[in-house]
Amino acid sequence: MRNAAKRSSDARVVTCPGRAPGQVELSQMIEALMDSMPWVRDKLAASRSILVKPNLGGGDAPSMTSKEVMVAFCRYLRENYDATLTLGDSSVIGSTSERSIEALGLRGALEPLGVRVVDLASFPVRRVEIPSGRVLKVVSIYEPTLDTDCLVSLAKLKTNYATRTSLTIKNLKGILSGPDKIRFHRLGVADCLADLLTVVAPGLGVIDGIQGWDIDRSVDVGALVGGTDLVAVDYLGAMLSQTDPAMVTYLTLALERGLGGMPGEAEQAAARAASRPFAGPLDNAAAMVLPEGIRVVAGEACSGCISILQRAFRRMESEGVLRGLPPLTVAIGPGARPSREPGRLIVAMGNCCGARDEADRVMVGCPPQSRYEVQRVFEELRDDKDQV
Ligand code: SF4
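# iron/sulfur cluster complex -> structure
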C-alpha cells in the first residue's frame, strides 16, 4: 500500500563520465546512488523481504534491464541487507519471463548470491480494490509483489510506443495478471497506471540508464536514477532521454493527482547534463509509411496511436499477412473526420477517435494494443471483404 507521506525530491541521478562503466565502476555507481539516499537505507534495513522487479519482458535483450545492472544491484542488496531477496517479472502476453531468465542465465548468476529468481506468472494473483480509481476499480496482481516488505521497480531507460517513455511506473505492468495487461490498453494505459499508483507503491524505483533503449536501438547514457518517489524518478528518466516530461501522460496524471512530486532543481540539472537524444515514438502521422490502399486521417492524434499503427503495419508486413486488405481509411485522434467514400471502409482507432460513431470498425484502447486489437481488426477485415 502507498506510504502516507512522500518527499517531492526523493530522486537522485548518478552518472559515469565515460558513459560505459565496467563492472567495478557500475558497483561504485550503485553504491553512490544508494548512499545519496539515506532515507532508503532505513526502509531496506527494516524489510524482511525485498522483491526486485526488473524489465525482463520477453522482448529483445537490449530493451530489458541489463543483466550486469541486475546482478550488481542484487549484490549490493546482499552485501548490505539481511532481507530475503527475490527477483522476478512476468512478460507481455505471447512470451514468458522464464524464457528471458534462462536465456540470460539469471539463476546461475543470482542464486549464488542467495537471490531467488522467479517468473511471477507462475504464482497466483490476488484481487486488489482501487477505491479512488478513475477507470480501474479492481486489478489482479501476482501475490509475491503484494507480500514482499519492499518492492523495487528496476526499470530500463527506454522510449516506448504506447506511453512515450517506459520507466519505473510503466515497469509495474509486469506485476499484473495477463488479462489485466490487456485491459490496461483497453481502458487507457496512462489512466490505468495512475490508478495503479494509488494502491501500489514500491519502496524504491531505480532506472538502469547505463545503456538506454530508443524504440529499436541502444543509446549509451551511463546514468542511474533512483528514489522512493517513482514520479520524480521517472521525471528524471524522461529528461535523460530528452523527452519532455509534460508529454508523458501518465506522469502528468500522477503529478496532477498528487501521487508524487517533481524532482529537485539540482537533480533536474544533473539529468539534463547527462541526457542523450532519443528519437522516441513516431509523432507525425504524415511521416507514416502506409500500405497500398490505406489512408490515415489524423486529427490531434498523439504518438500512441500513430506509432502503434505504424508498428502494426510493419509487423503484418514482416509476417506476410498484410496483403489483401480492402481499401481503408484509418481515423485517429479526436479531430479525425474522414469523409465517406464508396468502396472504402472507415476504421476508428483509439478511445479518443472523433469518428467512432460513423466508423465501420472500432479499435478500442488508448492506445489499442498492436497485436491483440489493431492487427486482429485488420485481419478480420481482410478475411471478410464482403462488407465493403
Ligand atoms: S486513443 Fe487518443 S489519446 Fe489515446 S493513444 Fe490514441 S490518439 Fe493518443
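# post-check
Residues 301-302, 304-305, 332-333, 350-352, 366-367 surround iron/sulfur cluster (CB under 6 Å).
The first helix runs from residue 23 to 35.
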